[in-house]
TrEMBL record:
NCBIfam families: IPP_isom_1. Pathway: Isoprenoid biosynthesis; dimethylallyl diphosphate biosynthesis; dimethylallyl diphosphate from isopentenyl diphosphate: step 1/1. This is isopentenyl-diphosphate Delta-isomerase. It catalyses: isopentenyl diphosphate = dimethylallyl diphosphate.
Amino acid sequence: MLASRLNLLTPRLSWLRGCSTTAVGQQQQRQVPAEAVHDPLQAHALKEQCILVDENDKSIGAASKADCHRVDPKTGDVRLHRAFSVFLFNANGEMLVQKRSSHKITFPNTYTNACCSHPLHEIEQERQESNALGIRLAAQRRLNYELGIPTEELQPEDFRYLTRIHYADTGDGVWGEHEIDYILFLQKDVTLRPNSNEVSEVRYLRRDKIDEAVAKFGAPLTPWFSLILQHRLKLWWDNLHRLEQFEDLKNIQRF
């Protein structure tokens, strides 16, 4: 009787051995379709096509957002792609920060600058490279989607393109970043209606309170925001009305 019961259990035990669980921050043992484990809207966004680039920011093709952010389990590499970071200031010179929602697949529940995203390969206008027009149009699109800023309040020429930053971070070991990140500054009072699927909190910070505010966040910063804050942001912020002296459109900063 016991032997027969064990024989019945054997197929189920074999099936269970084929399953895996993943604790936060650990490498996945078995790839599971993103749609099965993530918020539906965020999972759908993984199908968007990012622009692959080489280390000189030359476009070399396209790959899905999922493929561009998945850490290779053998090499630890993440595919290099084009991105942008918007730093938004109001008329008083206060900087907007957001907390990424818990639904986000990469770096959820972290504080960051106003908007960080990608120009999309499938949107022809966002592939335009002259005067970073494609990047500016992508920024306009994402600020509307994430923060609810009406598109008529922002024009591509409103963004000041400062420089590009090349950085990488392996995140939780499953999802990471490797980007040529275009830095865009914008000073304007805007209407905010945050998308709760993207953003859980927004606030404006004063320049003289930035360190105190960050220390009290109670949550980590995104890696790109942390690097920019450490290396460049305070200098740029101190010269908000003289930013032209810091424009470097030829060189890519390597962090």
